[in-house]
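A reminder from the course coordinator: this example appears on the midterm review sheet, so study it carefully.

Given structure:
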């Protein structure tokens, strides 16, 4: 299973589908085929591994397939993996994580009905690979990362509104790479009007040339700004974060980064819709200017929003602090 997890990492992280790896072994334990899912519309990992075995000239009858996610049972952009495994004569399937999808889940039961042994082997590493995808399917909304860059005294811009650049080049490059890992980036109309950002994943080298969907949240007109340079952008004419996430879920967006100013960031935090925080801290003091968030309704330190699984990374002179929002109480 460890090899299947390793292979799964070759798949794209930003797409609507999970990252899945599959290793097929014969009765002696020798590997006869390996495969992974390359993204929506391409063969699933099981089908890819079966094809790899055929290319190598190996038989799959009576073999065991190790898969990082329960084989699907539905017809989506491709056919059911349970059918492919059945036709290949696989005798046993060991899977690391159950598929929570209403349509795709339940493949293990189908295999069992066909006389193919299906065994769940819980594997935390496999679950972590698809943490954002699994979150989206179980909660009904994309996984939300709140990202901001600020000074040590919590300012995102100076008193005159200038903010380029609070952080250094290494931090900015890292933030661009993180954009390449998600399906969409959300900002408010105020950010679009004031900063006119491109919201692209730069520099080059983003896997497969992926660029996140650019999403504007709010009711102000923003036509003519850089965000509208092509059709990979949309505006949600609302101030309700849940409405925005519902619209993105409909588009099969599994993860987003919220990069709005204090108004948008605070709206997501107040709504309890932030899962993870990425804070880029610069060794700078301003003493005045725009803050990161405002109006959260917190009056006591006991009610503070706190992060768990906190990690820090040095990026040149700056420090990235990441963590997952913890439930209150």
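Designed residues:
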């Amino acid at each position: 299973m460890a090899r299947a997890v390793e292979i799964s990492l070759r798949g794209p992280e930003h797409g609507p589908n999970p990252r899945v790896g599959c290793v097929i072994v014969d009765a002696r334990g020798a590997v006869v085929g390996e495969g992974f899912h390359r993204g929506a519309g391409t063969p699933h990992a099981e089908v890819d591994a079966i094809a790899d075995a055929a290319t190598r000239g190996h038989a799959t009858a009576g073999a065991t397939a190790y898969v990082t996610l329960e084989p699907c049972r539905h017809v989506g952009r491709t056919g059911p993996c349970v059918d492919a495994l059945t036709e290949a004569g696989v005798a046993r399937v060991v899977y690391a994580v159950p598929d929570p999808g209403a349509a795709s889940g339940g493949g293990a039961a189908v295999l069992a009905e066909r006389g193919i042994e299906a065994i769940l082997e819980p594997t935390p590493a496999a679950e972590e690979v698809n943490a954002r995808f699994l979150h989206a399917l179980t909660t009904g909304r994309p996984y939300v990362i709140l990202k901001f860059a600020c000074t040590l005294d919590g300012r995102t811009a100076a008193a005159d509104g200038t903010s380029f650049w609070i952080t250094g080049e290494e931090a900015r490059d890292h933030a661009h790479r993180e954009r390449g890992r998600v399906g969409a980036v959300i900002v408010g109309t105020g950010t679009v009007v004031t900063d006119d950002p491109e919201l692209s994943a730069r520099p080059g080298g983003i896997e497969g040339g992926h660029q996140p969907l650019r999403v504007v949240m709010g009711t102000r007109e923003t036509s003519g700004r850089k965000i509208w340079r092509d059709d990979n952008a949309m505006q949600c004419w609302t101030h309700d974060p849940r409405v925005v996430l519902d619209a993105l879920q409909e588009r099969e967006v599994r993860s987003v980064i919220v990069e709005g100013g204090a108004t948008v960031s605070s709206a997501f935090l107040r709504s309890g819709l932030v899962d993870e925080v990425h804070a880029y801290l610069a060794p700078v003091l301003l003493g005045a200017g725009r803050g990161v968030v405002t109006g959260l309704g917190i009056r006591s330190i006991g009610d503070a929003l706190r992060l768990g699984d906190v990690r820090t990374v040095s990026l040149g002179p700056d420090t990235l602090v990441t963590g997952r929002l913890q439930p209150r109480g």
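The first helix runs from residue 2 to 8. The longest strand covers residues 143-151.
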